[in-house]
Write a structure and sequence with these properties.
heterodimer, A: about 350 residues, alpha/beta, Rossmann fold, 4-stranded antiparallel sheet, B: about 260 residues
Chain lengths: ~350, ~260
Amino acid sequence: MPWLLGRNVLETSCLSRVVVSLGIEVVVEGLTKEFGRQTIWRDVTLTLPEGEVSVLLGPSGTGKTVFLKSLVGLLKPEEGRVLIDGVDMVNDRDRDVFEARKRFGLMFQDGALFGSMPLFDNIAFPLREHTRKKEQEIRRIVLERMEMVGLGGEERKLPGQISGGMRKRAGLARALVLDPEIILCDEPDSGLDPVRTAHISQLLIDVNARIDATMLIVTHNIDIAATVPDNIGMLYRRDLVAFGPREALLTSDEPAVLQFLHGDTRGPIGMSEEKDAALLAAEAADTAGPARTRRTIEIPPQLRPTPGMPPRQGEHRHSLRVDEMLPRLSYPAQQAIWANRNHPQEGGRNGAN
Amino acid sequence: MAAPDTVVPGAGALRQVGRLFALAGTVLVMSFRRPFQLRELIQQFWFIASVAILPTALVSIPFGAVISLQVGSLAKQLGAQSLTGGASVLAVVQQASPLIVALLISGAAGSAICADLGSRTIREEMDAMEVMGVSPVQRLVVPRVLACMAVAVLLNGLVSVVGVAGGYFFNVMMQDGTPGAYLASFSALAQLPDLYVGELKALLFGFIAGVVAAYRGLNPSPGPKGVGDAVNQSVVITFLMLFFVNLVLTVIYLQVVPPKGA
């Protein structure tokens, strides 16, 4: 099991540092993806810091899923690099990319479960392929994970026999079963009711606290974006318009970001990808009218791990990183960051603040 | 795949052919890489055998009979009636049997394999498998191709026997051939390499049927219709390739192996 070996090496190499880490940094440099003549996005550069939770927002059809697939090397962007612990997922040899993929857990939009296998076998699949655990041990882990995502007792059902939301949760359980170092979630909330969405949010934070995995969640759910991540990015109009600490993005005055956060029909984002100039001009003339009702965004405190969970190492590193950039952030963002830090913590007490 | 800036006519088709050959190469390499998917191989073998045996046997009886009747009547006109047996047996063992087997494996099993892999592909199961660091080629395609090859070789034996027996029956019963002449001309004209090349053809045709079905299954156009089209194309492409490869093999065989008694 070479990938397990790799993890041990990683662990020992980190021992010299103060924080023992399992998560690894994902560096994206100048990534450009085209399908034929259509540019999906261009020159996307960002770093998913190790062990931190990031959210990628964006209107439908801006290539968020394509971005996730590019990170794991399922799609090959035309330009740029995705570096994971020295492996370039875009340009390196297939063999290296294959090895690196074992460090990922990817939750697909509709679960992507194997239709011919019951849920139990689906979730046990990575364990049976990549570990030499005994069947009894596998059974214990799988049942625990199914319990965790609220699918206890459903293990004999086939993916075709359960609802979309359940498939999605089963997909999450399968993505998490190997405790991956990088977890990518494609719209974990779509098709789920608000309560389940809240549970999934909490679950993701707890997983992050437990195994310190680097996480990227693609969504257009504002509630998840506002409460879960350390960092938020937004893809819009073939560009990454913003990527930064949660508070910086939530207080941003970039028109597209503002419109998206407020769910407003007025602004640069149209029904199709972008509005044309005439429509924008007409809207600008319309601003004299009464302001429409807006969803006000109060910046809620970030979700904490449930009591009993270890503190999030990623949060600690994140606050150190944010301290460094604090002077460069806008005043409202600084306020929001302080407010969040002073918020009483429920679980996973962290010595950082 | 990015389309190149300069559009060369036929480049698309060439690219497809290239990728088909690349998959064939990968399958060959992966066949020897552990862990070997024995369970999947046995399941697929059983499945392919169960869908292919009955139609193959049913097709081979009339086919052997037709060849025997046609050759018999021609030989009668030429006054070489006593050689009917040898001629029709050679035609069955060398040509008809491997082709029947391959056509039925492609039609019955290849289409099922293509549809199965195709629907898995559009449901992103292949992507999911790759992300989990498991190669779909090694895990799914190799067992299927090997099963196709094994079933083809074994079925080829069945078809040869049934076809020859059918030919014998019709020649003796309907064309007043004598059993003795049939068998004697058989052993006068046929030789063991004829059987070898028949089995070799069956092996190769099974490989082609499996790889083409898998290739189309792994690369369907999006949507359910894409899978349907892929199945259709996989069968058509396999048929085209079978007859072409058969031509090449036959030419080589006739050049390399001297006919008996020559």
